[in-house]
């Protein structure tokens, strides 16, 4: 089964600070995604990438940047963390981007901004 | 407006019983549907997909899609305690794919031993 590893598992950050969440996949998948999960909102797509050195905006990109330095690694960057960014963040990968492709999720990073 | 709506928000079913979860889309562009399951403390995992009208069965799980009404359901027979989880319905458009998947808010399923 596809393996997607996220780090850290949890993080506490201060308002206005910079936060970097990391994701690593070992499945040779082209597509990688960052989702945010909030109670009452389900999963919402922040950024995604289909090739190294390129990223695309998802549905809620404001306040977030993404970086894909290699096929295996995908980072989510909060330059100025805010209270509203407290959430659980999931990274996912898929082989390709078609509708029949399965998303493989990591275990999540719980971010608390104080 | 939430484009993918799930009901009920929470469902309690006795062990061995049938659990039925519902999902409706308000966007006629959504044609491809997935069910994902998330156990507490873990990431979501794909359960099954359904792209054509009718039923699709995988073991104890059966999905039903009615494209005319944009309604998809998931039925779990002989429910087990391990089925207790948050279930997400997700949909993508005709012109979209995994990179444009829209998730519902989820249904929390509790299986009572």
Structural class of chain B: mainly beta
Overall outline of chain A: globular
Q: Major β-sheet of chain A, in short?
A: 7 strands, mixed
Total strands of chain A: 11
CA-based shape of chain B: globular
Described by strand count, sense and barrel closure, the largest sheet of chain B is: 6 strands, mixed
Q: Biggest interface and its residues per chain? A: A-B, 29 and 26 residues
Q: Beta-strand percentage of chain B?
A: over 45%
Mean pLDDT of chain A: 95
Low-confidence stretches of chain A: none
Helix content of chain B: under 10%
Report the total helices of chain B. 0
Question: What proportion of the residues of chain A is helical, as a percent range?
Answer: under 10%
Structural class of chain A: mainly beta
Radius of gyration of chain A, whole Å: 13 Å
Spatial gap, N to C terminus of chain B: 37 Å
Architecture blueprint of SSEs:
The complex is a heterodimer of chains A (114) and B (113).
Chain A: E1 4-7, E2 10-13, E3 19-25, E4 31-38, E5 42-51, E6 54-57, E7 65-67, E8 73-78, E9 87-94, E10 104-105, E11 109-113
Parallel strand pairs in A: 2-11
Antiparallel strand pairs in A: 1-3, 3-8, 4-5, 4-9, 5-6, 7-8, 9-10, 9-11
Chain B: E1 4-7, E2 10-14, E3 19-25, E4 30-38, E5 45-50, E6 54-58, E7 61-66, E8 71-76, E9 85-93, E10 102-103, E11 107-112
Parallel strand pairs in B: 2-11
Antiparallel strand pairs in B: 1-3, 3-8, 4-5, 4-9, 6-7, 7-8, 9-10, 9-11
Describe the structure.
The complex is a heterodimer of chains A (114) and B (113). By secondary structure, chain A is mainly β. Chain A has strands at 4-7, 10-13, 19-25, 31-38, 42-51, 54-57, 65-67, 73-78, 87-94, 104-105, 109-113. In chain A, strands 2, 4, 5, 6, 9, 10 and 11 form a seven-stranded mixed beta sheet that branches. In chain A, strands 1-3-8-7 form a four-stranded antiparallel beta sheet, with no helix packed on it. The model of chain A has no long low-confidence stretch (mean pLDDT 95). With 113 residues, chain B is mainly beta. Chain B is globular. Chain B starts with a strand and ends with a strand.
């Amino acid at each position: 089964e596809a393996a997607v590893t996220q780090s850290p598992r949890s993080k506490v950050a201060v308002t206005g600070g910079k936060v970097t969440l990391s994701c690593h996949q070992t499945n040779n998948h082209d597509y990688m995604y960052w989702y945010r999960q909030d109670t009452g909102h389900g999963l919402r797509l922040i950024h995604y990438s289909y090739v190294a050195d390129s990223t695309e905006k998802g549905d809620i990109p404001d306040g977030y940047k993404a970086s894909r330095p290699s096929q295996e690694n995908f980072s989510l960057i909060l330059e100025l963390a805010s209270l509203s960014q407290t959430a659980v963040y999931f990274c996912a990968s898929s082989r390709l981007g078609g509708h029949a492709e399965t998303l493989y999720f990591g275990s999540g990073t719980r971010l608390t901004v104080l | 407006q939430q484009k993918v709506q799930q009901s009920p928000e929470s469902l309690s079913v006795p062990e061995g019983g049938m659990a039925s979860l519902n999902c409706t889309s308000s966007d006629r562009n959504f044609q491809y549907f997935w069910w994902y399951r998330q156990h507490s403390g873990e990431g979501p995992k794909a359960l099954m997909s359904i792209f054509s009208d009718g039923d699709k069965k995988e073991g104890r799980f059966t999905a039903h899609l009615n494209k005319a009404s944009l309604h998809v359901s998931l039925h779990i027979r002989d429910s087990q305690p391990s089925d207790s989880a948050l279930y997400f319905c997700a949909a993508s458009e005709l012109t979209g794919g995994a990179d444009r998947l829209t998730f519902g808010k989820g249904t929390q399923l509790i299986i009572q031993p």
